[in-house]
Amino acid sequence: MTMPADMKAHNQKVIEDFRANGGAPGRALLLLTTRGARTGRERTTPMMFVPDGDRLLVLPSNAGARRHPDWYHNLVAHPEVTVEVTGDTFPAVAVVTQGEERDRLFAEVAEKYPFFLEHQSRISRRIPVVALVRR
After folding, report:
1. In 10 A of CB 5, how many CB atoms?
2. Considering the domain boundaries, does residue 63 fall inside one?
3. Cα torsion at 73, 62, 98, 74 (round to 10°)?
């Protein structure tokens, strides 16, 4: 997969299209708004999600980069987030899963989306699994 040269501009276009069209029907795409860990300013990031019962799972793989993405650091510092999915916007709490639950969820997601295994194989950090729980 080729990454856009200007990821910030690319993400802004995705966010604008998502909001203009009332979501992304037929795509597992959501907008996650976090509060900056240092600045406290709101930041919105588009990302794929995997439904898990009443929760939505997101994986901060950062395309296999050595660092967690900024949005992950933000939600660890401030777990109260806002989620936008097709036809719905709601407050949620971001819960970083741990231990056996994390391992099980990662395996289930990676079975459906094997690129997460590729991302994990390229790095020493462990890719977290974050559950977004509606408040």
Report:
1. 7
2. yes
3. 10
Number of domains in the chain: 1
How far apart are the C-alpha atoms of 91 and 122, rounded to whole Å? Answer: 34
Pairing of strands 80-85, 42-48: unpaired
* Nearest of 84, 102, 82 to residue 92 by alpha carbon: 82
Residue 109 lies in a domain: yes
Give pLDDT tens digits for 77-99: 999 999 999 989 999 999 999 99
Identify whether the C-beta of residue 128 lies closer than 8 Å to the C-beta of residue 104: no
Asked if 123 contacts 66 with a C-beta cutoff of 8 angstroms, the reply is yes
Amino acid at 80: E
The pair of three-digit structure tokens given for residue 21, joined into one six-digit string: 């069209």
Query: Measured between alpha carbons, how far is 33 from 42 in angstroms, rounded to an integer?
Result: 6
- Tell me the residue range of the domain where 119 lies: 7-134
Summarised one tens digit per residue, pLDDT across range 31-76 is 999 999 999 999 999 999 999 999 999 999 999 999 999 999 999 9
